[in-house]
Design goal:
Blueprint lengths: L1 E6 L7 H13 L2 E9 L9 H29 L7 E7 L3 H11 L4 E6 L5 H15 L4 E5 L9 E5 L8 H8 L5 E8 L8 H11 L4 E7 L6 H12 L3 E6 L4 H7 L15 E5 L2
Parallel strand pairs: 1-2, 1-4, 2-3, 4-5, 6-7, 6-9, 7-8, 9-10
Antiparallel strand pairs: 5-10
């Protein structure tokens, strides 16, 4: 059974990741764990015993709050709770705590909400961008305004350097019977690629049906705008990308300057795999 670690700070916007994970779990066999990381400070004058008692009490209260928070999200979706658990971790280091917990417990995905639009830090927030740059576990970034809808198709933006990435794309798509479209934008000076050659190469990687779309870059548009146009045309349930974490195609897309418009991501969950 696949396992997803869903992070929440108990804010309204963090419900987006929860809604996405619950929807995904309703379509296939997935166990969910809802994780809330909270720092319980220790006054310097307290003894170890006094702090331990206080910490236990605070964790108990936060666990009760998390339980109610999760139950409310299930109730708002008219969905009966199924295979899930709730975890509270006391730590001032949110990013590393999430990563360590996900790694130690062999999660298949980390799911986190994000807010707004603009530059990478504004769009993703520090925690999310750090997860993208550091996690070897795939990260699902869900825009804060996401509303649950059945997952029916995924758009895989590829630089065509490693078609074996399709194995992981299909591993995500197959359990929910989602259609897969491979999208590649060729650069102006890039040699013309015969789509049939790519289709044959794709068939050697997977028996799952994959549509192939090779499109020249628009000369006056950013790569972001090109992908935005493709998403408007195909309306994917999830956009999938691979990153070498600050290098390569993903870096081109998100680190190419302040003028890039990231607003296209506000309605589409993004699944990021590490190329490593």
């Amino acid at each position: 059974m696949k396992k997803i670690l869903v992070t929440t700070d108990l804010s309204s916007s963090s419900k987006a990741a929860m809604r996405f994970a619950i929807q995904l779990a309703s379509q296939c066999d997935i166990a969910l764990t809802f994780l809330h990381v909270s720092h319980i400070p220790r006054p310097t004058t307290w003894t170890e015993a006094a702090y331990t008692a206080h910490e236990k009490s605070e964790i108990g209260a936060k666990r009760e709050a998390l339980d109610h928070f999760v139950e409310a999200v299930y109730k708002s979706r008219n969905t009966d709770p199924f295979d899930y658990s709730c975890v509270i971790k006391n730590s001032p280091f949110t990013d590393s705590t999430i990563l360590d917990y996900a790694t130690d417990h062999d999660f298949d995905y980390i799911c986190i909400s994000t807010h707004g639009a603009g530059l990478l830090d504004k769009l993703f927030g520090t925690t999310t961008s750090n997860l993208i740059n550091q996690s070897k576990i795939p990260v699902i970034i869900v825009p804060g305004h996401y509303r649950s809808t059945k997952l029916t198709n995924v758009l895989y933006a590829s630089d065509l350097t490693r078609l074996d990435e399709l194995i992981r794309v299909v591993d995500f798509a197959r359990p929910v019977s989602a259609a897969v479209r491979l999208l590649h934008f060729s650069e102006p000076l890039e040699p013309i690629i015969d789509p049939d050659i790519i289709r044959v190469a794709v068939q050697k990687q997977t028996d799952y049906p994959v549509a192939v779309q090779l499109t020249p870059r628009h000369v006056v548009k950013t790569l972001t705008e090109d992908i935005e146009g493709a998403m408007n045309a195909h309306k994917p349930s999830v956009l999938i990308m691979f990153t070498t974490q600050q290098e390569g195609f993903f870096s081109q897309l998100f680190m190419s300057g302040n003028s890039i418009d990231y607003s296209f991501l506000t309605t589409v969950p993004l699944l990021v795999f590490s190329k490593a």
